[in-house]
Amino acid sequence: MQLTDRFLSFTDAQLAFFTAERRVETLGLYLSAPPDAQGPPLVLIRQWSSGERALPPADADQNLRIPNSNRRWYPLQDAGMILGALRADLDPSESWTPALDEQMQRSAAAISHALGRDLECIQLRKELGQQNDQLRTLVHQLRNPLAALRTYAQLLLRRLDADNKERTLVEGMLTEQQQLNRYIDALDGLSQPTLPDSYELGPTLLPPGPTAGPTTLKSLLNPLLERAAATASLQGRSWLGPSRWPAWTDQPLSETTTAEIVANLLENAFRYSPSGSQIGLSVLPDGLCVWDSGPPIPTQERELIFERGQRGSTSQERDGTGLGLALARALAEQNGRSLSLCVEPATIDPALPEQGNAFLLSWPESATPTAKA
């Protein structure tokens, strides 16, 4: 097995002085061969000599068959596993002393630990390479059916009249397909060894969206609102979108962070609020609010739900990763905003339910309307 240069440099530093003093004629570092490997059980990978002597491979070294009081072996073991051995041959004019033997034992122990970590590192790199290969393959395969879905949706759109009420649904399908392609592009980037300096990833691992043409908060949220309305219709529950759009929602934006936050909040509401409860999104003078009319989240869980991998006690039996709210808050804080929970939505807006859960995305008081994004 090819060991790293870092490990080999470490062993050089540990052992070179033994041969430099000419007390030890030759040192050999052997690795244990894999159980199914053909050949000797020990493989010589490194040697140090005070002279011109070179060690032959273990299976061809006839001297190993002859007892020699000047030769000692020090096992290299880590976590109960024998990883190899360190061979030390004294100069014929020298003899073993307790101090020299103790020095060799300490060096062997240090090399054993370093060797264990080096082999783990090599194995992890190998596994990471295999995972990256699998990821690239899956990403490649995913692109094909997504491209086919886009083609079918475009063909269907051509068959619908301009005033057909179903056009909105098909256009929504095309928008969602574009969003999926963004996630796939992000996944593809994860399998690359390096990312360009301009490639910025947030907690959702999603790259910035296309910047062609003016983008406003209203234009970013509309596809999410259409998706929410369709989901509510399928679930047979009531959905209430924004009743008003402040002027700042039509200001040009330079990023799409808010859309990512809102997408996570809406997914959380539809996934975990009880069947039949109302869900909605309100645009406020200084922020946004995603709310539901379900039972309030228990007091002791109102901060816990914002931690990665944590879910409330009432949602343990439902599918989910417990990442949505954590990602939403992380994105908000990274952009100078705050995300909080209010269990009385009506205190935020009298038009909202008296009981339920409202997640409020707020901007700092110092933020101007044009800075809201």
What does this 3D model show about the protein?
The structure is a single chain. The protein is an alpha+beta fold and 373 residues long. The protein has helices spanning 5-20, 98-159, 167-190, 217-235, 257-272, 324-334, and strands at 24-32, 42-49, 71-78, 81-90, 239-240, 279-284, 287-292, 338-342, 357-362. It folds into 2 domains: 5-126, GAF domain (Beta-Lactamase, 2-Layer Sandwich); 215-373, Heat Shock Protein 90 (2-Layer Sandwich), CATH 3.30.565. Helices cover 40% and strands 16% of the residues. Helix 4 (217-235) runs parallel beside helix 5. The longest helix has 62 residues, at 98-159. Mean pLDDT is 82; it is low at 194-212 and 368-373.
Quick gist of this model?
By secondary structure, this protein is of the alpha+beta class.
* CA-atom Rg in angstroms: 33 Å
Structural class of the helix and strand makeup? alpha+beta
Look up the CATH topology of the largest domain. Answer: Heat Shock Protein 90
Helical content stands at: 25-40%
Span between termini: 53 Å
Question: Mind telling me the CATH superfamily name of the largest domain?
Answer: Histidine kinase-like ATPase, C-terminal domain
- Can you tell me the CATH class of the largest domain? Alpha Beta
Number of domains: 2
Low-confidence stretches: 194-212, 368-373
Largest sheet: 5 strands, mixed
CATH architecture of the largest domain: 2-Layer Sandwich
Tally of contiguous helical segments = 6
Count the beta strands.
9
Strand content of the residues, in percent? 15-25%
Question: Which terms summarize this structure?
Answer:
373 residues, alpha+beta, 2 domains, 4-stranded antiparallel sheet, Heat Shock Protein 90, Beta-Lactamase, elongated, 6 helices, disordered C terminus
